[in-house]
Amino acid sequence: MRRTYGLVVAVALAATWVGVTRDQTVAAQEDTGVITGTVTSGDGAEAGVWVIAETDDLETVFRKIVVTDDDGKFLMPEMPEAGYDIWVRGYGLLDSSPVTARPGAELQLAATVAPTPQEAAQVYPSNYWLALIDLPAAHEFPGTGEDGNGINERLQNQSEWINVLKGCQRCHQVGSKRTRVVPDLDQFDSTIAAWEDRTRRGQRGSLMSSFITQFGRKRGLEMVADWSDRIAAGAVPPAPPRPSGIERNVVLTMWNWGNNVAFVHDEVATDKRNPRVNANGPIYGVDIGNDFLLITDTNRHQSTMLKIPLRAERSTVPPMFTTEGFAPWRDFGEEAVWNDPANPHNPMLDATGRVWLTTQVQAANNPEWCKEGSDNAYAKYFPIPRAGRHTGYFDPKAQKFVLIHTCFGTHHLQFAEDDNDTLYFSGGGQVVGWLHTKMYDQTGDERASQGWCPTVLDTNGDGAITKPWNEPAARRDEESEFDPTRDTRINAGAYGVITNPVDGAVWLVSDDYPGKLVRLDPGDNPPETCLSELYTVPAEHGYRTRGLDVDRNGILWAALAGSSHFASFDRSKCTVFKGAAVRDGRQCDEGWEFYKAPGPNFKGTDIGTDFHYYNWVDQFNTLGLGENVPITNGSSSDSLLALMPDTKEWVVMRVPYPQGFHSRGVDGRIDDPNGGWKGRGIYATYGADAAWHVEGGPVEPGNLVKFQIRPHPLAN
Asked: What's the CA gap between 569 and 680, in Å, rounded?
């Protein structure tokens, strides 16, 4: 990092409203300038490299990053008045020494070609380093256990091994400098012992250790130890391609938000149904690690934090992360840097600009009206004794939080395009839940305003769901009993949720192997009329569904984090919707299409090393690439990846600094539909659990990133 900045410390239980008026926005834009220049090295003009400007002169640390054109020229637009450190990063180069400048400057920046592959590789994304890992060969599967080949007996093929490895990437980038370099090797008898130690440390130590066990412990430790040993001995991956074509038109604007231990899971800018909502307003995020709502005013360059409340005393609600008894952190010792009884996960704006979120409001035990024996129609149909996360909203105008207890658990949330402003939730496991927000606003009755349905397939083919039904197996590795005369309940295991704008159906996605989509039609009289459909990912083509979104034509898009694909699903191609054939979800393989994401593969395979945490569809051309452009998180490649619908070509929007851009979600907004590229943009955030894995280390706060695409690399 060019400088060491202080932490963003704007923590408050109540904060001053940071919204902006249109007049304020115009004034802010008028008080900006440009910085131009050229980048050259001993090889001549350097095309497709990044020019990075950063300053701590503003309310929060501010960065602007652009790409040079064919002639090595650059233009940084909309630069607030401040003093900047400006320098160059590019594949094949050493980072240049910073120069200082203010808006209006024209610079000649000198770059240096990296003298060795090892020095050049220090700025390669994590997925390139991960490509150096050696997997067990395909012929070694299925595993025969610790007394055999060391591979867990549950792993039937090499893809399942890769799927376990990809699971580590849910929390952080595997391949980052913090993971590939093993510190303090001299304190251990072997690299294996050092890896054994490091995977047990900190508040997530038990989770990391469990992933090693899923491989087969000894075999898993041997794999990662061999990988880091070869890197220490000088092994380097091949160089990534520099940005080209449209990729050189990308403009990145960044603001620090949160603090150095913030686990910022998601951000939101607008109402997904209308990208003009909250135009020019603040961007919101949730810190799942310590129960904060983050707010960044991108016009004033100001970031604040609000503590998310609970209905109960915080000490009475157990946090998600263990807070005692863990092996000391390498960076923080025995300090519990996370304490999150509210456990907020995902924010979403409504049409009025309120920030809805999934958050725990009190202990998991449900009130009686959710449980068996209640006269609640939904509880009578399918009672729910516990719910680990609920919902609520922050009202920016009133500056207050409103908490709502749901009987069902929540994770992600999405508004339907209906008259009730229905908010649907994933995360209930066995059910799909919803809240009629319009009714809640009118009555304040959280019981009357919510409902839920179990996910049940019409396997007896009579066109309706009736009790009793076939129940799912108690364990994932067990077969459930199946009576073809009955319908069949499934555990959707829903991670994400979306509603289809074409027919109003609710779709869910599961984070499992090989992955599945579940469609729910609530019908006219839920819960009795709720009808579900299951569509399983063909594992031979791709696996591990995580993200889910839909385009305006009703086509579903899902990120496949395990196999590194984008997949689309078109239900209109399906012909079978009921009967015994729908039980395994393979009745409509023809509905799937798969698109391999760019980047390196694991050695000896055609499986990419990138991890796609989630995905989003730009339904309204908020970025400028067109309508209905699907975008997935390159969570291990420091990027967002856009798939052009017509050409099926990829646009890689890399965030080169600070390294460690592990994003979990995307949102977009149109601030000015007549403002050209400057009136549009999409947002993502650094979202790794371990924020200190980011370049800059434990002192680097979180970062919010705005992506824009201009007509050419020198457009202003």
From this structure: 28
